[in-house]
Design brief:
Elements: H1 43-65, E1 69-71, H2 77-105, H3 107-112, H4 117-135, E2 140-142, H5 145-166
Antiparallel strand pairs: 1-2
Helix pairs in contact: 1-2, 1-5, 2-4, 4-5
Length: about 170
């Protein structure tokens, strides 16, 4: 990037073919909004909301596709959205807290089964999420481990993976 100076009062605006200063040209030592702080509206500020929405959509797909999974069968649309959102938050917390511990402890099983035990772990985490949502007073039931929880975990994994292509990552 060329070393450009900031325009001063009385400088003429850039003519045809000339490039004026851009936001990236400003030094980071400037006060105010050009200080190098993250800009408002960037993906970092909303990534947690996007993850909750993706989890909620994945859970809704699993509830729609798998007979043994049921989420908020009655109630208004706003109650269902609240229920899906809370269950998605619980699902995210369970995955963020417990899954790394299980992966670390069961590392040998992941290697031995070439990762297929991850499907069993995800099904158990989904059942744990259903239990936690029930404790919080939200209707989320899974009929049984096989096939409901296992297939539900598979559907959630696939839908989350597909939606991750549509949602930009914070590193992009």
């Amino acid at each position: 990037m060329a070393n450009r100076t900031l325009p001063r009062r009385g400088d003429h605006p850039p003519g045809p073919g000339e490039r004026g200063p851009r936001l990236g040209d400003f030094p980071e030592s400037l006060p105010g909004p050009y200080s190098g702080a993250p800009r408002r509206g960037t993906i970092e500020g909303v990534s947690i909301i996007i993850r909750i929405i993706v989890n909620a959509l994945a859970l809704a797909a699993a509830a729609y596709l798998i007979d043994g999974i049921e989420i908020a069968p009655t109630g208004s649309t706003s109650e269902q959205i609240l229920t899906y959102s809370v269950i998605a938050i619980v699902f995210g917390v369970v995955n963020a807290v417990i899954k790394p511990i299980v992966k670390t402890v069961g590392c040998a099983f992941y290697i031995l089964t070439l990762g297929l035990v991850a499907l069993v772990v995800n099904a158990l985490l989904l059942m744990l999420t259903a239990w936690a949502a029930g404790v919080l007073g939200f209707h989320f039931t899974i009929a049984d481990f096989w096939p409901s929880a296992v297939l539900g975990a598979l559907v959630i994994s696939i839908v989350s993976w597909l939606l991750s292509f549509l949602v930009p990552d914070s590193e992009d």
